[in-house]
Specification:
Layout: H1 2-34, H2 80-84, E1 98-100, H3 109-113, H4 129-132, H5 157-165, E2 171-172, E3 180-182, H6 187-194, H7 200-214, H8 218-223, E4 228-235, H9 257-261, E5 263-268, E6 276-278, H10 290-302, E7 307-313, H11 324-333, E8 337-341, H12 352-360, E9 362-367, H13 377-383, E10 387-390, E11 413-414, H14 417-421, H15 427-432, H16 436-453, H17 468-489, H18 501-504, H19 536-551
Parallel strand pairs: 1-2, 1-3, 3-4, 4-5, 5-6, 7-8, 7-9, 9-10, 10-11
Helix pairs in contact: 6-7, 10-16
């Protein structure tokens, strides 16, 4: 009897153990298999200073049966780690990491070693010194600050930007966490070597070589280059050759299929194309610390300005559409207007001190189109606290949408070209109608823009202020991040019309569609229908080079 009871108890005990084991197995299975698909893994972000094996080569293929975390980020997209860095609130670089391609030196540093070949008329060797800032300017006339001023060439952004990138606080050697990928190719210096007297094979060689190098990299496969960006300190028309005729202008970098996916930052972009973005021309001021900027801004506030308006420039007798001749005439005939005439030979226009002195003495600075839409002078005038007067929206408003406020009336005056060309409106009368109170408000707005329109010294770092480099990098990061989120959400912009690219840049947050705009007449495409290197655009590029020659005469 006792044996029978003991046997039953033993059987029951075995049954309970078995059921318990099955229960725990089911629980563990449910936890790791079922819940595992939606568990967020806290992947630590590698330190920018510690090399980490990139995962980009192994994650570019995605599972069509994708899963999504509770944060809304797909587990199977190759850029998921980069997006997740924004969730790490303890990481000041979360969502801001930049990966820089380690390009062969032929794409950048070798060009600087051959600096005499970078321009047909200018010895660029002195302008590539001091990390691209050029030789220091002496403050003999007291126009500048005692430090931070350099004779910077207007086409030196390639090297200035690349050197600023070396000081960027969120660099990473792990491309899988990068918010964007920088390509340190000196595109502007490259084309500058070969614009005159070289066939298209020579002009295109480095661009084709670069693209061939990039597309073989695992980083490229992640987004087909749509997370890549590069900088060229020249106008976009130098990179938009339409034909394969040697007589046509420039190279075809921006028309290469791979390059169309990248973002190219240029000092003048095309209103009709989507793969280039305008960034400021470099000025002569490159502060090493915040205090240098604050002191300069305060000085600009206190200046007495005896001229109502001023203009520094030369006429364009060969351009029937130019209004420069009429502007010069109005300056000459006005008692409150100041003119600094520029022409061949010796001219005060080639003296940074003379230019800045005039701008500092003026309330308004006239900025008609240069040889193309834009001119460096606009940024020099803002630096001097002078309110710019524009005559074409392509000179600033549709160009520098990352750096300038959308409400252009807060910091500038707009007088349509036809008001000068056809109606001969009095610039003096138009500007005199602006009240002193409004002028003061506008000037304060202009002075407030100075930090974001200058490039800080690449050998140092501003503490609290964001310069032109910082603004541009953040804009690229935002662009790539928004694109990645759109991809995950399945958003497509099938109604996008590239010819209207300039309009999209003016849209408010959340807007996606464009329609008729008051500036449509300013951006009607050339008769050749290209909107690129044809007709007036290529002539603008050529004239730009002619005037560089003039500056060295």
């Amino acid at each position: 009897m006792e044996k029978t009871v003991g046997k039953n108890q033993q059987t029951r005990l075995c049954l309970l153990v078995s059921l318990s084991a099955v229960f725990w197995c089911l629980l563990l299975y449910f936890h790791f298999v079922v819940l595992g698909g939606s568990t967020v893994v806290d992947e630590s972000v590698p330190s920018p200073s510690v090399p980490v094996q990139s995962e980009s080569a192994s994650i570019h293929k995605t599972n069509p049966h994708q899963t999504t975390t509770h944060t809304g980020v797909s587990e199977n997209y190759p850029f998921v780690r980069a997006l997740r860095t924004t969730e790490n609130k303890s990481d000041p670089c979360g969502g801001r990491y930049i990966y820089v391609h380690d390009l062969p030196s032929r794409f950048n540093e070798d060009m600087l070693k051959e600096c005499r070949s970078l321009s047909l008329w200018t010895n660029m060797c002195k302008f590539t010194t001091n990390a691209g800032l050029g030789p220091p300017l002496e403050n003999v006339e007291g126009v500048f600050s005692d430090t931070g001023w350099y004779a910077t060439n207007q086409f030196a952004v390639d090297v200035i930007f690349s050197n600023r990138m070396k000081q960027y606080e969120c660099l990473t050697q792990d491309s899988s966490v990068a918010a964007a990928i920088f390509v340190p190719f000196y595109a502007g210096f490259d084309i500058a070597r070969y614009l005159w007297g070289y066939n298209i094979s020579v002009r295109d060689a480095a661009s084709l070589d670069l693209v061939n190098w990039l597309v073989k990299r695992p980083e490229w496969e992640i987004m087909g280059g749509k997370d890549h960006f590069l900088v060229a300190g020249r106008i976009t028309w130098d990179f938009r050759r339409l034909t394969d005729l040697d007589s046509d202008w420039g190279n075809k970098l921006l028309f290469l299929p791979a390059a169309k996916n990248m973002s190219m930052l240029v000092v003048e972009s095309s209103p009709w194309n989507a793969n280039d973005f305008g960034i400021p021309y470099p000025t002569y001021f490159h502060p090493a610390k915040d205090a240098d900027v604050f002191v300069w801004q305060e000085r600009m506030r206190k200046l007495e300005r005896k001229w109502l308006f001023s203009f520094a420039g030369a006429p364009r007798p060969g351009n029937m559409k130019s209004i420069r001749g009429q502007i010069i005439d109005q300056c000459r005939n006005s008692k409150v207007g100041k003119l600094l005439e520029c022409d061949f030979g010796e001219s005060k226009c080639h003296s940074p001190s003379s230019i800045m002195q005039m701008f500092q003495s003026s309330l308004f600075c006239l900025q008609p189109q240069g040889d193309s839409y834009t001119r460096r002078s606009a940024f020099d005038s803002i630096l001097a606290g002078c309110i710019p007067v524009f005559f074409h929206p392509g000179s600033a408003y549709t160009q520098y949408t990352w750096h300038l406020p959308k409400n252009y009336s807060k910091y500038s005056v707009f007088i349509p070209e036809d008001d000068i060309r056809k109606r001969n409106i009095s610039i003096e009368k138009r500007l005199s109608q602006i009240s002193p109170e409004q002028v003061k408000l506008m000037r304060e707005e202009v002075i407030g823009l100075i930090p974001r329109l200058i490039y800080a010294d690449p050998r140092s770092k501003l503490d609290t202020l964001k310069d032109a480099f910082d603004v541009a990098v953040q804009a690229v990061i935002d662009k790539v991040t928004n694109l990645r989120r759109d991809i995950i959400a399945g958003h497509t912009n099938e109604d996008f019309i590239e010819e209207n690219s300039w309009k999209y840049a003016l849209l408010d947050e959340g807007q996606r569609e464009v329609g008729p705009h008051e500036w449509d007449p300013f951006f009607s495409k050339p008769k050749d229908g290209s909107g690129d290197s044809g007709g007036s655009s290529v002539e603008a590029a050529k004239n730009s080079w002619k005037n560089e020659q003039r500056g060295q005469s």
